[in-house]
Amino acid sequence: MDTVVTALRSALADPDGTVVRTDPAVLDAARTDKSGWTAPGGPVAVVEARSVADVQAVLRTCSAARVPVVPRGAGTGLAGGANGTEGSVVLSVARMDRIIEVSVADEYAVVEPGVLNGALDAAVAAHGLRFAPDPASAAISTVGGNIATNAGGLRCVKYGVTREAVLGLDVVLADGRLVSTGRRTVKGVTGLDLTALFVGSEGTLGVVVGATVRLVPLPAGAPATLGAVFPTVADAARGAAAVVTGASRPSTVELLDAAALAGIAAHLGPQVLTETLGSSSADGAFLLVEFDGPDAAQAALGAAPRLQAEGGTVHHATSAVERERLLTVRRSFHPAMEARGRVLIEDVAVPRSRLAEMFERVEAIGRRHGVAIPTVAHAGDGNLHPNFVFAGDEVPAHVWAAADELFRAAIDLGGTLTGEHGVGVLKRRWLGDELGDDVLDLQRGVKAMFDPLGILNPGKAI
Amino acid sequence: MDTVVTALRSALADPDGTVVRTDPAVLDAARTDKSGWTAPGGPVAVVEARSVADVQAVLRTCSAARVPVVPRGAGTGLAGGANGTEGSVVLSVARMDRIIEVSVADEYAVVEPGVLNGALDAAVAAHGLRFAPDPASAAISTVGGNIATNAGGLRCVKYGVTREAVLGLDVVLADGRLVSTGRRTVKGVTGLDLTALFVGSEGTLGVVVGATVRLVPLPAGAPATLGAVFPTVADAARGAAAVVTGASRPSTVELLDAAALAGIAAHLGPQVLTETLGSSSADGAFLLVEFDGPDAAQAALGAAPRLQAEGGTVHHATSAVERERLLTVRRSFHPAMEARGRVLIEDVAVPRSRLAEMFERVEAIGRRHGVAIPTVAHAGDGNLHPNFVFAGDEVPAHVWAAADELFRAAIDLGGTLTGEHGVGVLKRRWLGDELGDDVLDLQRGVKAMFDPLGILNPGKAI
Q1: pLDDT tens digits, B288-313
Q2: CA distance linking residue A145 with residue A147, whole number of Å
Q3: Which residues are in the FAD-binding PCMH-type domain (chains A, B) (predicted)?
């Protein structure tokens, strides 16, 4: 038995190993996430923490033993950031999933990190509220995971990313001390903004064990939904730019390119696209635009001619059933990809005005490397998810070569490596290209200050 | 001649001292701001930087000489954060006031830090855009000052604070290196969020020399404005809470208590209040509520009965003239205070649901110390500005004693020392009460990492 496992079982009063798990299947599952990347080695234990005290005990024990700790939630990450690496202790907070408090008057909730996004939304919906961050994975991903990656999602074009939704955090530091940052007020500027620093830090500065998150009112009335088919993806990108600015901001602007539509057609059957969009869109692109709030219908009416001006054939959903059919096209993208093999989902972002150019680059890169790169974009944010489908457990070299060009293209267009998934393991080698040496040094300095022994998620994020 | 002045004039090629100013009047003006606090000593020079290179030269020179640097903009701060202290070099970026780029398609502007908030708004209004942060001082305060303090303002109840509006920063570090953080995309999670860390850091981590800020569309149509008079301030606080939640968020919710109204009546003449509000409100309170956007009129109609339910007598502005009269009541508060003496403007915030209680505490503290504490609140944010008017140049001891109780009351109600003005010099002694020792240690560790020689705005903020 590994000595750190013995020490953890003693510290957590867990002689039978029901909390400090070492079953091979549990260890193995913790090596991977939804990124398609599996750590080559594996952790020595997975601790399924039940409380803040458990988390503190793990960090004290691992600090004393100089053993790396990999914080983990539901394991739905897309960059390998929570994957248990060789010799590490995976510290899962998935069981810490309580909603501690909901304040309707002050529009916040106090939650444990393991609560699912969907569960929080369901719990507060009765009060006419919701948690704004809305990753596509909301049903299976945790609030703690959102915080670790500063996740975005489909409606952040209107409602902002996770950082804007986090008022305060309880964090266990590398040495086991528990600290609270931030506040329950909507404003507050006392001291440096450590809350914002922890958001998106991917478990490298501390382990989030509690969060005070902002809730926002559910929009009044029914949403208004448009689907538009465009001759080319560049037209669709221009259509997206045309509807996202102006006084009424859409709550969703999602773009699917021709390769993505082809994958969906193969998955759902081509007649679904033909019936829904009036086209199987082999060469075109699809844009889904939704407005919510009291002026939703009016805003959609105003947006339709702007889509038409860019060459769009616009379908206005006139019933909940029609809306559902339009949403289904978008929602079927990831299942369609996963049905074809393992998937590497990339996550570049560019200024919105460069979106059409970035799509052209994606197409050119795909042609050059002989790979299809079906792509969905949160087009209102300029955030593209180019997908690579491959066989086997390892991302092939030619896929990484194509991804490398993708990252460089995004940076070249004034963009970023990762809009919302995080750096994790998979994007570390491009970090310096985006940040530059001086900023990277500052980041490493901050990391060293919070974690002088380097035990928190080493080899990830920075 | 001080040796650092000689070194600065040499480094900046300024033999005549037109950039490195040492005129007594200039040095003296830099000792104070709008807080009512004047540094007991004074700076040895005020450098009026014209360029990034100037800022770099100042930091290199002052690092070499171990001389403190106090970054400063327009000097409109309310906590002494930019006041030139004994033996320091004040580094003014007020002359660096260019708007470098405005991207209408991507809704951002790239600006120098000295640009006035009002000037930026005026420059982008023609494109149907504005910079969301809206301090009451917008006409005279700089974007750099907003960033230094993470300023809020009147419309942040709907549009968020400065942090949400800053995409990226150019910062000169203590040793003179220039770094860029953040991005021009609306999303991006590569590395730690140093941009958010610099926002609100009050010049203690680096000197902001450029910013990429988000612009937001100007709301469509005319705003809809309500003024309501309540029998008590607690009723008005409940009225504010009743209109700020729900699907239509007001863009402004400002509360004036009885002492504030008395001051305004004395300043404008009591008939102005009587004509505008139908009451001189000697015992009551006034709430200004404004909605903008396409459903403004509808939202105001919905809000009126909620104000009435809390005891409000509601005036619905039916013309631009009537709106202006309601806004004038609020806008006259600060001039009314300044007409009576020197003013210490405090800045506590509490969860919105505790606003009525906080007003009760303010009243009780005023009674106990025999001082009037006229108070205006950004009530939608739970952010109160209790004002103390005094004679002479020094804040009297009994005012600080009352302020001390105010800060403790805010923290006791789950709130914060400062909602939007910053800690500066004036609130440092209460920092530990709010943050606790461990968080304060972390903040000091971050500070030491960015500024190992401790030359950046020492004695301020943290």
Answers
A1: 999 999 889 999 999 999 999 999 99
A2: 5
A3: 39-218
